[in-house]
């Protein structure tokens, strides 16, 4: 009972000088919780003594743990460039610096400077996209799933949307095209089979209640063997003949040709636009190498109808997204592609990756066993499914540590590796040049 009497009172305890520079509200909350727990532990005889300085220390540690930012910088050594779990595409510091002043100031987001009246937020990227892709008009929403939903809700509510069975995809986070279509109010009309769909399937499916012929990018998988699918240009042709809308959900659209013949099955946005589609949509934060956004481009009359949909208010993007997106699209226009980290990583020569790997290896030879090896990796983010690209990796071994233990030690220090053939690999395809010394420091710390 004497121990109970020694428990400090909250109102006096929170005035401890150690708490002076901390939030009084949060310190009070934590003090009440810790003191109540302390009282319970004394009563249940879990503890038989305590020190006030230990209580202070525990509260400060809890305070710091709660207020520490959850999002942290990490080093992506998995080799996957567009890593969905690690924030997808990087934004260059150069691009971020350019938009920082606009984003942190009042700006003309919805203000027409020429006319001195309310403007439209989407106008800031329309001119750039028109010059870049040749589209008539454009619209940006918060991601490509939103773009799909908005298009279907606007043009196919209570009407038929025709889709090949082989394209009824499910991507990460249980996003399923059939369910999105149902939620949008569209009436799904499946055609063809899982492995084969023909042009005549689209032609035969059209009725008086058909609104859209939809093509969907097969994210995260490919169908091989006895297969056939209808090219977008043929779908556009059928749509024009039957006076319905053609719409291509590209998933991850890329603006220019990709290396390693990655776009033999997936043409670029620029090549697709040569066929003058009604509407296409694609992600901003995948192969385009920008921020999270759903970009819709196509016929002006259709974009105008999308803008009138009341759902757009819930799906619109903010000033920072528009700022960064415009900056990255301008990088394409000006052919300043090194300002887009995703493209820079994708085009980095093997010789340069090997040079970086050797630099790290030579700094670690006395610390652990490591070997530079040829590797293969995926771009990630649902792009170019099952298409691997060459890379260079560094294997790590230390004493009798198992791969899982090494991987965890690195991960605890925000260095994310991968395990392959029972070895921990650092893949240099996704490692930035300015991260090499930090990687060396982390490994020296882990294997000290």
UniProtKB/TrEMBL annotation:
Known pathway: Aminoacyl-tRNA biosynthesis; selenocysteinyl-tRNA(Sec) biosynthesis; selenocysteinyl-tRNA(Sec) from L-seryl-tRNA(Sec) (bacterial route): step 1/1
Key word Cytoplasm present: yes
Location (main, coarse): cytoplasm
EC number(s) given by UniProt: 2.9.1.1
Superkingdom of origin organism: Bacteria
UniProt enzyme class: transferase
Cofactor(s) of this protein: pyridoxal 5'-phosphate
Catalytic activity reported: L-seryl-tRNA(Sec) + selenophosphate + H(+) = L-selenocysteinyl-tRNA(Sec) + phosphate
N6-(pyridoxal phosphate)lysine found at: 286
A GO CC annotation given for this chain: cytoplasm
The UniProt record lists the keyword Cytoplasm: yes
Subcellular location: Cytoplasm
Role this protein plays: Converts seryl-tRNA(Sec) to selenocysteinyl-tRNA(Sec) required for selenoprotein biosynthesis.
Family from the record: Belongs to the SelA family.
Stated name of the protein: L-seryl-tRNA(Sec) selenium transferase
Organism: Malaciobacter halophilus
